[in-house]
Amino acid sequence: MYFSILKTITFSGLVAMVAGHAGHEHEPVFGQMPIVSGPSDIPVNFDRPVLDKDVYMPSFAGISTFAHLPYLQCFEEGIVEDYDIAVIGAPYDIGVTFRTGARFGPSAIREGSKRIKGFNYEIKVNPFKSWAKLVDCGDIPFEPFDAEHAMGQIEAHAKYVLQRPPKPDQQVATPPRLVTLGGDHTILLPVLRAMHAAYKKPITVIHFDSHLDTWAPEIYNVKAKQSRFNHGNPLYHAAKEGLTTNGTSMHVGIRSSLYDEEDIQRDEALGFRMVKANDIFTMGVEGMVERIKEVIGPKEDTLLYLSIDIDVIDPSMAPATGTPESGGLLTRELKYILRGLNGYDIVGMDVVEVAPAYDTQAQLTSFLAADLIYEIMSMMVKRGE
Ligand SMILES: *[C@@H]1O[C@H](CO)[C@@H](O)[C@H](O)[C@H]1NC(C)=O
């Protein structure tokens, strides 16, 4: 497909050149173009398809959408095209407290996703060959100068993507699953506002992070109204606004130092439970999965949202992030824990805080972020419509 588009472009360019050069105004007639030679002396006749549509496409080629998914301009008014899983980028990073740069997260994750394809052997599904239509909507347009305004734009666009027309066999449309590429963790708040509006009830959030992200705005001693919203407190606001379930939402991987011991009490009162990074020594990964299932409750009753701050992983394996914390989970451990959630109704997910400027030349963090999304996409598709 890409090759034939390329051909078309090259051909139009050629036509323009020829027409321009010759200075006449006639539209060129397709069948009358001269036959020219391709690089391997294969005659190229513009009159008919030259190459097979299913020609091998190397994974390192092509324009970067997530996992080579088709790009759909989902934000344009009047789009009625149906989709089941929508990837959106939210390159917002004006809420960070330490290293900046997560605005380049979405493009880095897309670059890191190039090799993703095919059958997920652990989940037993190929998310790209299934009942589901997956699209990459590109990035949300927003003004990165004004936090409140930008958050409003992210919320509005996420809401827009979550609306879709009912399928032919449906009375009422169900929202598509949403995959958001951050951005710093502030974006979780506008996204959860949009999720809440779409489902009209609180969402159970499993928050994978080394930090609690429920710090009260007062702690930062900030004065401006907009400074109340930053990447250290999306879940504080979300819980206060009733967007998250109380007592069944939780954190996984916590290990950072706190401002105060009270941080834990505030967090609990906001409705969050936790499994710390250190718990892996006593519980093991299997035990962590069991504990998570105990907290979030049965599969039938749970609308699950997974928010992954890439700093949940040890910085040795995911260095490209704004506030790294030593002593984190290993990549295989997190993948195992995620797969333990297979069967739940995962209605949305994000990977945030990928700041590619701090990555290794080997793009470790970007590859990881993309792979984690692939695991969750697989479970979304496996679960069914
Ligand atoms: C969550 O429930 C507990 C216990 O009922 C309550 O004390 C707390 O205020 C609730 N938190 C929120 C944010 O509603």
TrEMBL record:
Top-level taxon of the source organism: Eukaryota
Protein keywords: Hydrolase, Manganese, Metal-binding, Signal
Keyword Nucleus: no
Sites where the protein binds Mn(2+): H185, D209, H211, D213, D309, D311
Cleaved signal peptide residues: 1-20
Any single biological process term in GO: putrescine biosynthetic process from arginine, via agmatine
GO MF, one example: agmatinase activity
Entry keyword Aminoacyl-tRNA synthetase: no
Cofactor names: Mn(2+)
Cofactor note: Binds 2 manganese ions per subunit.
PROSITE patterns the UniProt entry points to: ARGINASE_1, ARGINASE_2
Listed CDD domains: Agmatinase_PAH
Family according to the record: Belongs to the arginase family. Agmatinase subfamily.
The name this protein goes by in its record: Agmatinase
Organism of provenance: Absidia glauca (Pin mould)
Classification lineage: Eukaryota, Fungi, Fungi incertae sedis, Mucoromycota, Mucoromycotina
Gene name per UniProt: ABSGL_05948.1 scaffold 7611
